[in-house]
Hints:
The chain is mostly helical. The protein has a domain at about 60-200: Orthogonal Bundle (Tetracycline Repressor, domain 2). Helices cover about 75% and strands about 0% of the residues. The chain has 9 helices and no strands. The protein has helices at about 5-25, 30-40, 45, 55-75, 85-100, 100-115, 125-145, 155-175, 180-195. The chain is elongated, with a radius of gyration of 20 Å. It starts with 6 loop residues before the first helix and ends in a 7-residue tail after the last helix.
Amino acid sequence: MPKIIDHEKRREEILYQALQVFADHGYSDTSLSMIAHACGISRPTIYQYFRDKEEIFHVAVKKVTGDMFTQYGAIAFDTDRPVADRLKDICSDIIMKGYANRDKLTALADVMVQRKREGGDFSDIIMRRTVKLNILFKRLLRYGIDSGEFHPVSVDDVSTQLYTLLESFGFQMALLEHFNPQTSVRLITMFIENLSHKQD
Length: 200
């Protein structure tokens, strides 16, 4: 009896293993053969799922960020909780997940630098994925202002500041040996609490 293959599960396994290989070896030094070996399958089998390693990287980034946004959407619309708490939870989770996966963040930074040197660019995929986070921040900030929980502020400016803080922490995680995630969580928590009328 032929073995039944769960193609969706195999595709996810390729994406997961590819991120590990990218993290270990960098984008340029990673080959499809290395990814196939990590998955315990042949290189021709990879081609049944992906065109090349660039497509694997694109899809992996989309999957990771997509899963996160689904979770953060659920937090954002939990209207039984103060808006400030929802914002803090989302930002704290981004920092802690990033820290737990700093090898992948390093690989992502490595890929972007290498592609830039080669005349390519992955920043478009990152920007498209993070636009959703900015929209989520703006929506929560408007809820906070409309409900009277937050001071009237420029939603665009504060959303950009939140995103820039998180982006800065992401680069620090990827590049600095002694990064302290708890300090970053405290900083962003203070930033969010300063929006609240409770600080008056």
